[in-house]
Amino acid sequence: MQIKTAKFVVSNQEVHKCPTNQLPEYAFIGRSNVGKSSLINMLTNQKSLAKTSGRPGKTQLINHFIINENWFLVDLPGYGYARVSKSAKKTFQKFITAYFRERKQLVSAFVLVDIRHKPQPVDLAFMQWLGEHGIPFSIVFTKADKLRPKSIEDHIDTYKNILLESWEEFPNHFITSSTNYAGKEALLNYIETINTDLENSTNKLPFQ
């Protein structure tokens, strides 16, 4: 897939205020400082579509970007918020949960995890929550340029060993780097394949 246009549409904290267009949506989410904004900018060929910041936890709203005028990339607040109050965390958690439960246009989520670190309980718990609620997702390993290939394999194997203790199969996953563009083509082609399948389906989009 080639991204020709990527435009900001709206930010809000209420699901019913999200775009009413019946276009497929792909939600990106992860802990603070996982490199989500940098990944989104890399995927969309823009330097500042998603705001990057030296202060983790900058994203505090549901942000919709329309891509190629035919699907939405949704930038969600992290679930490991940095430097915010407990009340703010509860607010974020409430509308994030509402988004995943209520947003019929959502086709798939992308859960970002920093490949440099061992599996974190908060990441594993969130994936478990998605699975329990029947929400399709892929794991996006970020910052792969920081590790050697063998270390990358070892870290992914660790995730596999843990998740396969309770999952029948290891979730779909991508290895990415916003620095050297690793994984960009694979991830975008994955989205394109799903969109094509939806367009060609006799039932059209699952939420229509």
Task: Provide a short characterization of the protein structure.
This protein has 208 residues and is an alpha/beta fold. The chain has five helices and seven strands, in the order ββαββαβαβαβα.
Please characterize this protein's 3D structure.
By secondary structure, this protein is α/β, with parallel strands linked by helices. The protein has a single domain (6-199), classed as P-loop containing nucleotide triphosphate hydrolases (Rossmann fold), CATH 3.40.50. The chain is 34% helix and 20% strand. It contains five helices and seven strands, in the order E-E-H-E-E-H-E-H-E-H-E-H. The chain has a seven-stranded mixed beta sheet with strand order 1-3-4-2-5-6-7, sandwiched between helices. The radius of gyration is 16 Å and the shape is globular. The model is unreliable at 53-58 and 81-85 (pLDDT under 50).
Key structural traits:
Rossmann fold; seven-stranded mixed β-sheet; 20% strand; 5 helices; globular; alpha/beta; 208 residues; 7 strands
Map the helices and strands:
Layout lengths: L5 E7 L12 E6 L5 H9 L17 E6 L3 E5 L10 H17 L3 E9 L6 H12 L4 E6 L6 H15 L9 E3 L8 H17 L8
Parallel strand pairs: 2-4, 2-5, 5-6, 6-7
Antiparallel strand pairs: 1-3, 3-4
